[in-house]
Design goal:
binds 2-deoxy-2-amino glucitol-6-phosphate; glutamine amidotransferase; EC 2.6.1.16; globular; 611 residues; Glutamine Phosphoribosylpyrophosphate, subunit 1, domain 1; alpha/beta; GATase_2_dom; transferase; 3 domains
Length: 611
């Protein structure tokens, strides 16, 4: 849950390149940031062979210390102009785990001498006992982090071992899921190790890059090597060596080509990524309608031949799985089990080689999901990933990855990836029912309906609703059937970015407890699509209205009990898609009304790579 970026090569603006990389990665963690750079000498490096002091391929720093700049808060308009010219630089955006959000706790961390710097993603589980041993050896610690222990451990081993070996030995002692990048002032190279947390090497011409997310590499290169768990890399300007951390044996480099373009990962004319991504949704649905049918057919065959299908995901992706279970039941008359990624590992004892796990994820790096999927694989289950990021951990772990195809999603609140998953699941359900064409037709309608929700009149209504609700403390959202996951997702979007407490629930559950919370003026949002749930859900809205609730009806037709009516054109079983887009826009405008940043909500990060 952090962004990492590194540069090694002939350019001398290393710190700036890293800062730009960090800006592109900030959605991965944004409570603090830092850049470390090995300054070139006080004179530029010479390639003159007579210059005895200059060793080709090595950075030149007479003082042999690394310059580190760290700050709390978001990067914003920060500059690294005060960092000297450098051809070896490394940076990190933090999402705090061990130690509060302070400048000292921000990464990179340095050893006692200031000549080794390190950034880390993950949790170093046994750091306390190692810290005690290092303290006895005289190491001085200044932060409360687990990360700082790693750099001192490397320093300790580097007294006797070559630097890559010292990093390897230290890394092998670190328990937990971790990725580290270390650099030393006197050598122009990074030593990198990964176990569980994502790291990608980007190949340039006479220069190389490192990042925790391939999207950050796009302005520089599309050629990458995704480090596998247990792999290390030694990265210099014109060489990348991959080794197995356990044995030290060489592993061949597997270059893959990224398919996204740099422009896709930019905000363009939108004020926030979230708004851009919301507006990209009709295009995403249309594209999946066109290209997803063949995949859906193939996946349908796999589902048919499996004995038990499980959909697993976290947060928004878990809600997509719940929606999938209704779609499977309604359209294909098939049962599917849904599980939350973090709970899946506790409920999979009955999986076997004929079981099928469909793992849903935007990032493909969600630790809770990856852990469950790994356990399922040990039971012999087949894993299909419906994932948005090419080459991500889940993509590589699965037996068969299917790309969602939503393009880079950078706002912390997932929007187009969710709608992308839903679109694939609609196609899959109809393919299972042998009615693939009908699925495509409904998705066409859904795209039109989303266009309508995003149109001027609808946005005006949603802005007015947001203005009316912005000071409320609680919002309740109800739905039945496919509108139940729509309610959960709408409530998650609202709480995640506007910080208003919102609860999504099955409307039938109201009278089993939550109705006690509804008093005069309590905002209650009800999804009332044109399906079999309409009557019963309307009854729920009425029960809330009768207790003074302020009723927001999201429906294909108005009703007298609505205090606010948000029309949504019917798209059959795919109506959940435009319904959810209403929820996304409402959450967005509530956040704007409150003057908050929808892209980087407090305490959260885009990629949840810790447990
Ligand atoms: C969605 O708005 C959230 N930020 C979060 O619930 C997210 O969906 C969840 O962390 C799963 O992420 P993934 O899709 O990348 O696996």
């Amino acid at each position: 849950m952090c962004g990492i970026f590194g540069y090694v090569g002939p350019r001398t603006n290393g710190a700036e390149l890293v800062l730009e990389g960090l800006k592109a990665l900030e959605y991965r963690g944004y409570d603090s940031w830092g850049v470390a750079a090995v300054p070139l000498s006080f004179r530029p490096p010479s390639r003159n062979p007579k210059d005895k002091k200059w060793i080709p391929g090595q950075a030149r720093d007479d003082k042999k210390t690394i310059i580190v700049k760290k700050k709390t808060g978001k990067i914003g308009g920060a500059s690294v102009a005060d960092i000297p010219a450098s051809s070896l630089a490394l940076g990190h955006t933090r999402w705090a785990t061990h130690g509060g959000v302070t400048q000292v706790n921000a990464h990179p961390h340095a050893d006692c001498s200031g000549s080794i710097a390190l950034v880390h993603n993950g949790i170093f589980e046994n750091y306390e006992e190692i810290k005690r041993a290092l303290l006895k050896k005289g190491h001085r610690f200044i932060s409360e982090t687990d990360t700082e222990v790693a750099v001192h451990l490397i320093e300790e081993y580097a007294k006797k071992l070559a630097f890559p070996k010292a990093v390897r030995r230290a890394f092998m002692e670190m328990k937990g899921f971790n990725a580290i990048i270390a650099m030393r002032a006197d050598k122009q190279e990074f030593v990198v190790a990964r176990n569980g947390s994502p790291l990608v090497v980007g190949f340039g011409k006479g220069e190389n890059f490192l990042a925790s997310d391939p999207a950050a590499l796009l302005p520089h290169t599309k050629n990458v090597h995704f480090l596998e768990d247990g792999e290390m890399a030694i990265v210099s300007p014109d060489n990348v060596r991959i080794i197995e951390a356990k044995t030290g044996h060489a592993v061949s480099v597997r270059i893959q080509t990224l398919t996204w373009s740099a422009g896709q990962a930019e905000k363009g004319n939108y004020s926030f990524f979230m708004l851009k991504e919301i507006y990209e949704q009709p295009g995403v649905i249309k594209m999946i309608t066109k290209t997803g049918a063949a995949q859906a057919d193939k996946l349908a065959r796999t589902v048919r031949s499996s004995y038990g299908t499980y959909m697993v995901g976290c947060g928004t992706a878990a809600y997509a799985g719940i929606a999938g279970s209704y779609l499977f039941s309604k359209i294909a008359h098939r049962h599917v089990n849904c599980a939350i990624g973090s709970e899946f590992g506790y409920a999979l004892d009955f999986l076997g080689p004929k079981s099928l796990v469909i793992a849903l994820s935007q990032s493909g790096e969600t630790m809770d999901l990856l852990e469950g999927v790994k356990k399922a694989k040990t039971k012999g289950a087949r894993v299909i990933a419906l994932v948005n990021v090419f080459g991500s951990s889940l993509y590589r772990l699965s037996d068969e990855p299917i790309l969602i195809g939503a393009g880079p999603e950078k706002a912390v609140a997932s929007t187009k990836a969710f709608v992308g998953i839903l679109s694939h699941l609609v196609l899959l359900s109809f393919a299972l029912a042998g009615e693939a064409k009908k699925g495509q037709k409904l998705l066409h309608q859904a795209a039109k309906s989303v266009d309508d929700v995003l149109g001027e009149a609808s946005v005006k209504r949603l802005k007015a609703l947001a203005a009316a609700l912005k000071d409320t403390d609680h919002i309740y959202v109800i739905g039945r059937g496919l509108s139940y996951p729509a309610s959960l997702e709408t409530a998650l979007k609202i709480k995640e970015i506007s910080y208003i407490h919102a609860e999504g629930m099955a409307a039938g559950e109201l009278k089993h407890g939550p109705l006690a919370l509804v008093t005069q003026g309590t905002p209650c949002i009800a999804f009332l699509p044109n399906d079999e749930t309409y009557g019963a859900n309307l009854a729920g809205a009425m029960e809330m209205g009768a207790r003074g609730g302020m009723i927001v009806g999201i429906s294909y037709k108005p009703h007298e009990i609505f205090d606010h009516f948000i029309p949504v054109l019917d798209a059959g079983e795919a109506t959940i898609i435009p319904n959810v887009v209403v929820g996304q826009l409402l959450a967005y405008y509530l956040t704007i009304e409150k003057g908050l940043d929808p892209d980087m909500p407090r305490n959260l990060a885009k990629s949840v790579t810790v447990k």
